[in-house]
Amino acid sequence: MIAAATKAWLNGFCCCLLALSAFGQSSGSSATDRYAEEGQRALAEGRIQDAENAYEKLRDLEPGVAEVHANLGLIYFQEGRFDQAVPSLRQALKLKPGLSKTDNLLAVSLSELGRYTEALPD
């Protein structure tokens, strides 16, 4: 079970990601804009499954946007699906190594899987 402090941290992480202008890099298609808006709204309102659906579609349309992968990692983390959170968060960091708080969420996800050595910083 995720502790209250971790949940509070996740809320801050979520707000940080939502505030980022990830879609300035996008192709500007109406589908991209629609899924980005749907995903952000659903995540902010706590509708995790709707957010997951929107961000998975967005990932297919915009695989090169780090914030999309980071938001999916956050969603999977909130659902307790750490095995899916890890590759999403790693992809986000591969695309944008300095992405705010993503390395912390990756470390917590790895710890939840018992992969403590991987969770430690290099």
Question: How would you sum up this structure, described in words?
Answer:
The protein has helices spanning 4-19, 30-44, 48-61, 66-78, 82-95, 102-112, 116-119. It has 122 residues and is an all-alpha fold. The radius of gyration is 14 Å and the shape is globular. Mean pLDDT is 85; it is low at 18-26.
List the helices and strands and how they pair.
Elements lengths: L3 H16 L10 H15 L3 H14 L4 H13 L3 H14 L6 H11 L3 H4 L3
Essential attributes:
Serine Threonine Protein Phosphatase 5, Tetratricopeptide repeat; globular; 122 residues; mainly alpha; 7 helices
What is the CATH domain class? Mainly Alpha
Q: How many distinct folded domains?
A: 1
How many H/I helical runs? 7
- The SSE order reads HHHHHHH
The proportion of strand residues reads: under 5%
- Structural shape: globular
Poorly predicted residue ranges? 18-26
Span from first to last CA? Answer: 27 Å
Largest sheet: none
Query: CATH H-level name... which superfamily?
Result: Tetratricopeptide repeat domain
Cα gyration radius (Å):
14 Å
Indicate the mean pLDDT: 85
Helix fraction by DSSP (H/I, runs of at least 4)? over 70%
Can you name the CATH architecture?
Alpha Horseshoe
Helix-and-strand structural type: mainly alpha
Number of strands: 0
